[in-house]
Design brief:
alpha+beta; FAD/NAD(P)-binding domain; D-Amino Acid Oxidase, Chain A, domain 2; Glutaredoxin; 3 domains; 8-stranded mixed β-sheet; 13 helices; 25 strands
């Protein structure tokens, strides 16, 4: 029987990101994916700045930025009765590539079928064993680890694998989640769609517009049109009506539906293909995200409507949160209680974000509501999601849940560390760049005594002091982080605040705090 520290079931963005993040800690993983290759279709088409902060932490920011979606410069999200007709509503552009004062990172316009091969290559280069056409077909979830049966679909051979931890990342209909007997709660089915891929020259009905997506609704057809290549290849996700079946979508019917949606009766259209099965849009969240040594992440844990790129963002945040906790537990510097905080922290975020995307999906499809207010709350969720409890030591500061105003952050334990530009050896860096392999203590300019406290805490923390290893050219650090010049803040590897002290305490306090964070 093979043995591996971490087994990852699923090789989409969630599973591949987990392998990349674990490799950062030197923790090898076996990833198995039932499909024969990475995704070949552009589903998610952008990464938000918070997601890019996490990829930046593993050195992938510039690599991702060099790959550009064919619709990277498209800005229009709207709905209308037909493409050729007038727009009924234009929504705020979700992809604003200008710098945001809240982050050192920008939106990255990259398609999922561009991102997955990039992640796969990096995961393999850094030590992961990635096997496509393999699948977890049985799981024995034991108190001391996982024993799984992995089937090779090339040969039919089955292999027993023992892993200390299992990450369940095998998608919305996750077979492994069902093996663990974990159900879901959520909204009713919002829509069933069939994708029609086609070629057409739409320059005339577009009238110079560069669309990210157009929701079309008229008495004959309802669907969502988006460009595949930024030119002549298109995808129309048509909503199924009661009684519709994929087999009903003949070439003749598809051409008729597309012409009706576009609003040009004699438009030349070449049908490329129609998806083999319908896909569903809903908002569902798993009852649990942890069962013993098995951890559920991404679409296996929370299914969201495809708006605002939150599906990918929440998935990547899941596995970054999980990777550092698994790594520290595996090294023996953290207890099992730290692993339990994965669900404690991430499940409330999943519930909030799923509810937000369900609401946003309604607005995109013409339901009454304030689209601009929804966009503001979307940005707040992106940067300001908070943890009600978990791997941190509260300091009594009231923290809004499930999000805080990211433009006025509290820097309280359980919240994201605010972005401030500092200097290190003459080079500018963000406080988000302090996300490390371990906890990071940053003391104010008069916090000399924190060095002794950090020494007492041992090798579990990295230590910096403003004015020594780091410089604060704006003088904003202590104010933004709510400490005095002799105070300090403890930052987790995922960039969340673990603890802070307004002033220097007894040096013996810090080791006790670190124990409290790592041994819940």
């Amino acid at each position: 029987m093979s043995e591996i520290p971490v087994l990852i079931a699923g090789g989409g963005v969630t599973g591949l990101s987990a392998a990349v993040f674990l490799a950062r800690y030197g923790l090898p993983a076996l990833l198995v994916e039932r499909h024969s290759e990475p995704s070949t279709v552009p589903r998610a088409r952008a990464l938000n700045p918070r997601t890019m902060e996490l990829y930046r932490a593993v050195g992938l920011e510039q690599t991702i930025e060099r790959v550009r979606s064919p619709i990277a410069d498209h800005t229009v999200v709207a709905h209308a009765e037909t493409l050729a007709g007038p727009e009924l509503l234009r929504l705020p552009n979700r992809l604003d590539t200008r710098p945001d004062s809240l982050s050192p990172c920008r939106w990255a316009a990259i398609d999922q079928n561009q991102l997955e091969p990039l992640l796969r290559a990096h995961a393999v280069q850094t030590g992961a064993d990635v096997r496509y056409h393999h699948e977890v077909v049985a799981v024995d979830n034991r108190t001391d680890g996982i024993v799984a049966v992995v089937r090779d679909h090339h040969t039919g051979r089955e292999e027993r694998v023992r892993a200390d931890y299992l990450i369940v990342a095998d998608g919305a209909h996750s077979p492994v989640r069902r093996m663990l007997d974990v159900g879901q709660d959520g909204s009713d089915l919002l829509a069933r769609k069939v994708n029609i891929y086609f070629d057409a020259d739409l320059r005339e009905p577009l009238r110079g517009r560069k669309i990210v997506g157009l929701t079309v609704r008229n008495p004959a057809v309802h669907g969502f049109l988006t460009s595949i290549d930024g030119a002549k290849r298109w995808r129309f996700a048509v909503s199924l009506r009661p009684g519709d079946d994929v087999a009903d979508f003949t070439e003749e019917r598809c051409v008729h539906l597309l012409r009706t949606a576009i609003g040009v009766d004699d438009l030349p259209i070449v049908i490329d293909h129609v998806s083999e099965a319908p896909w569903e849009i809903s908002g569902q969240v798993a009852h649990l995200m942890r069962v013993g040594r098995a951890f559920i992440a991404g679409d296996a844990a929370h299914v969201m409507p495809p708006v605002g790129t939150f599906g990918v963002a929440t998935a990547v945040q899941d596995v970054f949160n999980l990777a550092w906790k698994i790594a520290l537990h595996h090294r023996g510097v953290a207890g099992a209680g730290l692993l339990a905080t994965y669900e404690t922290e991430r499940l409330p975020v999943a519930r909030h974000t799923t509810a937000l995307t369900v609401e946003r999906y309604g607005l995109v499809n013409g339901k009454p509501g304030d689209a601009r207010d929804s966009a503001i709350r979307q940005r707040a969720t992106m940067f300001g999601y908070t943890y009600p409890e978990g791997a941190f030591v509260p300091d009594g500061t009231p923290t809004p849940h499930p999000v805080e105003d990211p433009d006025h952050p509290t820097a309280a334990p359980g919240c994201r560390a605010p972005h401030i530009t500092l200097e290190h050896n003459g080079t500018a860096l963000s406080t988000t760049d302090l996300m490390g392999r371990d906890l990071v203590l940053v003391a104010g300019p008069d916090g000399d005594d924190w060095q002794r406290a950090a020494t007492l805490a041992g090798a579990r923390i990295e230590h910096h002091r403003i004015g020594d290893t780091l410089h604060d050219p704006t003088g904003d650090f202590t104010r933004r982080y709510g400490i005095t010049d002799d105070g300090a803040v403890l930052i987790r590897p995922d960039g969340f605040i673990a603890w802070r002290s307004p002033a220097t305490p007894d040096p013996g306090v810090l080791p006790a705090v670190v124990d409290q964070v790592l041994f819940r």
